[in-house]
Each structure stands twice: as structure tokens, then as C-alpha cells.
Specification:
The protein is of the alpha/beta class and about 425 residues long. Helix content is about 30%, strand content about 10%.
Length: about 425
């Protein structure tokens, strides 16, 4: 069986023995929820309760005729109720579901039930066009709401089969063959599309539609290195409902893009311009002053031209901010961070790694942001035990703290956090803390 094109497999053999079926089913990973999954925030972890490292489930039911001998017999998957089978198969990935459909007629019918095809993933080295046409032939295309095509091949006819009636979210990560004209075709035909992820599509410079305004609420253009200020203006002029915008590592954009964002997207809630090194305080000030309290998530990580002057305006106007990433903004000092602690009391996550801040910032956070959950101080060499003790005593709900490369922090500060913040996961680079 060729696993490279699992979506193309549609034939089945009615004469397959029960023993063969059981052997095939034992190769599948049917997962059960785990209770020890932890969301560490700054890390990429798979917290899907249906994905764990547990072994495949085998259902054993004792036979009434042999209870006295304590003998158990495996019940075949096909003997389960259809509703239970639907639930089990819904845990499988697209590829696993297609492989399972080849084992017998009943599982083929269950695996191709329309309710199981609301989310579809097509990953390399699958042929995306052939795969989608196979789904369309079985009538499941009209039920797809979220489609993920990541690193797949065969894009020549993909966009001619994309206008699925229910499609609201499309992910085309790292699809190097996607161009501006392809994106235009998508937006022209998928009129209900609300989320579009073009991360790593290096030939994309804008998201433009010939039919006018789109319903896009979320747009990710991270690592689209061809995107510049003019492309941002064209894109935003057609996305009045945009709420989430990610422009990580779009190195060509400048402050003009931030001004355009503030002008066209008055309801924007999340924005990331991390690693956009041409962004300066001027753009941050204009953005913060115009968006004000609507902004909840803001990332200027590694934008080394952003300093106190820009974030002081953020502290003044964005008082509903919940997440701020200023990692690598080395010109940032206690002046701005103290203002942020006082002006943004709803902060839940804050990354100040490599910034020129010390204990005054931690003392301000301890009184100004009592609900802080995640804090990164990696590389903040001025932070000492006194600041950590003040923070830990007042912010006892802290769940994650990064004090790596904080050379002035000793066991005293480490133990204070462990004592007061019982559920906090501490990241550090000092081997003596673990002893």
C-alpha cells in the first residue's frame, strides 16, 4: 500500500479475513486523553487531548459462556456501534482515516461519513490537487470548514477545486509555489473564508481580491519576505473585519505599514511584527494612539529600534493589553516597563528577555499586574533575588517564569518563587538550582 497518496485509495476487498482486519487495526494509533498535558506558553507543545504517546486501545469483553474460565476475547472494531465508531475515527488524522477505510466495507462507509470531513490535512509528499478531487468525488468537499495544505505537491489544479461552500479557514504553510494570483483566485471564490494562513509562502506579496472586500478576520503572512508597505496597504484596504494580523519576519515593512494598520483595521486585537527590524518608535506610537484599548496582543520582539518612547504610548493607550512581547528590545528600560505595569493591569503574559530592566520593574509588576501568568526575564542581568521575592510574594498565580542567564539570581530568589508560586514552572540555566 502506497502511503504517499492515502486519499487516492478507494477500493476494498470484501473477502478480507477478520484476522487481517485486526492486524491492520492494531497498527493504527487510537489515542485517549491524558491528564499531564501542560501548556508552557512559550513552547510549541501538542496539547490536543486526542494526541498522546499512549499505546493503541484494545477493547476486551468477557464472553458469557466462558466467564468461569476467566477467558477474554478481543471484540473486532466493526462490531461496535456506528456512533461509537464515528467518535473513534474522528480522533484520527486525515491520512490514518483514509488508510482505515481500506480494511473493510463497513469501515469504508464510516470513514467517509461527511461529519468526519470538516477538517482536512494534506501534507507532503501528497498531491494536493488529486487528493482534493478524490474528496470531491465522494461528496465530502461541501462539508470542509478547515483545510490545511502544508508542503504538499501538485498545485497545478489546486485552486480550481478550492471553492468549497463551507470553507472558512485555509492554511497553506510553506507552499512555495503559491503566488499572488493564486491568493486572488482563492479570495474571489471562497467568499466565506475568514482565516488565511500563508506562512512561508515566499512568492506572496499581498492578499487581494477582484470582487472587493473580503470577510477575512485572521491573516498570517509570517515569513513572506516579499511583503512590503504597498502590499500591506492593498491587503488591508479589502479586509475591514481583520482582527488578527501576523507579520513576523516580514523584513521589508516599515512604520508606514503600522500607520496603515491603524487606519484600516480599527478593531484589530492581535498584531505581531516580531523581527521586523525597520519598525521604530514612531510607528509604535501611531499604532498605539489610534488602536488604543482594542489591542490585546502585541509583539515587537527583536525590533531593536523600539525603545521607551514607543512603549510609553502603549502603556498610556492600550490599557486592555493582555500579551506583550518585547524580547530583544535592548533599548527598553525600567522607565517604560514600570509604566506598562501601572497602565496595563490586565497583562497575563510578558516577555522582557534581553531588555535593560531590573528589580524596579518586578516590584511594579507585583503591585500593578496581580494576574500575571507568564513572565520571561531571560538575559536580564540586572534582576536580583530581591525583585524575584517581591514578585513571587504578590503574584502567586504565576505559572511560568524564565530566569535563564540572570547572573545575579541565586538559590534565594529561586526558592522564593518555588515557595510562593507552587504551580510555577521555572526555566533557568543554573545547574545549582536543581540540586
Amino acid at each position: 500500500m502506497d502511503n504517499s497518496y492515502p486519499l487516492l485509495l478507494s477500493s476494498f476487498n470484501d473477502q478480507i479475513s477478520d484476522r487481517t482486519i485486526n492486524q491492520q487495526l492494531q497498527k493504527l494509533s487510537l489515542y485517549s486523553p491524558t491528564s499531564d498535558s501542560i501548556d508552557l506558553g512559550y513552547h510549541t507543545l501538542d496539547n490536543n487531548p486526542c494526541r498522546s504517546s499512549s499505546s493503541p486501545s484494545i477493547i476486551n469483553v468477557p464472553s458469557r459462556q466462558h466467564v468461569q474460565h476467566k477467558r477474554n476475547y478481543n471484540i473486532g472494531l466493526c462490531q461496535l456501534d456506528d456512533n461509537i465508531l464515528l467518535k473513534i475515527i474522528s480522533w484520527l488524522t486525515t491520512q490514518e482515516r483514509c488508510i482505515l477505510a481500506q480494511t473493510c466495507r463497513k469501515l469504508w462507509e464510516i470513514a467517509w461519513h461527511p461529519s468526519l470531513w470538516k477538517e482536512v490535512e494534506i501534507r507532503y509528499p501528497q498531491n494536493a490537487t488529486i487528493a482534493l478531487r478524490s474528496i470531491a468525488r465522494r461528496g465530502c468537499h461541501s462539508y470542509i470548514k478547515r483545510l490545511v495544505v502544508e508542503g504538499a505537491t501538485g498545485f497545478s489544479g489546486l485552486f480550481s477545486v478550492l471553492p468549497f461552500a463551507s470553507l472558512t479557514s485555509l492554511v497553506l504553510r510553506h507552499s512555495r509555489r503559491v503566488t499572488d494570483s493564486n491568493v486572488t483566485t482563492i479570495l474571489d471564490n471562497c467568499v466565506h473564508l475568514k482565516g488565511l494562513d500563508l506562512t512561508g509562502c515566499i512568492n506572496v506579496t499581498r492578499a487581494y481580491s477582484h470582487v472587493g472586500s473580503t470577510q477575512l478576520e485572521s491573516l498570517d503572512l509570517s515569513d513572506c519576505h516579499g511583503v512590503d508597505d504597498s502590499g500591506i496597504v492593498v491587503t488591508l484596504s479589502q479586509t475591514p473585519q481583520l482582527t488578527f494580523l501576523y507579520l513576523r519576519r516580514c523584513i521589508r515593512i516599515t512604520d508606514a505599514s503600522l500607520i496603515s494598520i491603524a487606519s484600516y483595521c480599527s478593531g484589530l486585537r492581535q498584531l505581531s511584527v516580531s523581527d521586523c527590524t525597520r519598525i521604530t518608535d514612531f510607528g509604535v506610537r501611531e499604532l498605539a494612539a489610534r488602536l488604543g484599548p482594542s489591542l490585546r496582543y502585541f509583539s515587537v520582539g527583536k525590533c531593536d529600534r523600539v525603545s521607551d518612547a514607543g512603549l510609553l504610548v502603549v502603556a498610556r493607550h492600550c490599557y486592555k493589553l493582555r500579551y506583550l512581547n518585547a524580547r530583544g528590545c535592548e533599548a527598553l528600560s525600567d522607565v517604560a516597563t514600570i509604566a506598562l505595569a501601572r497602565g496595563c493591569p490586565r497583562l497575563r503574559a510578558l516577555d522582557l528577555g534581553k531588555c535593560d530592566i531590573g528589580d524596579p520593574t518586578l516590584e511594579a509588576l507585583s503591585t500593578g499586574c496581580p494576574n500575571l501568568k507568564k513572565l520571561s526575564l531571560c538575559g536580564c542581568e540586572r534582576v536580583t533575588d530581591a525583585g524575584l521575592e517581591a514578585l513571587a510574594y504578590y503574584v502567586r498565580g504565576l505559572r511560568q517564569l524564565n530566569i535563564g542567564e540572570c547572573t545575579k539570581v541565586t538559590k534565594i530568589g529561586y526558592r522564593a518563587v518555588k515557595s510562593y508560586c507552587r504551580r510555577c514552572v521555572i526555566e533557568h540555566t543554573n545547574p545549582g538550582f536543581s540540586s
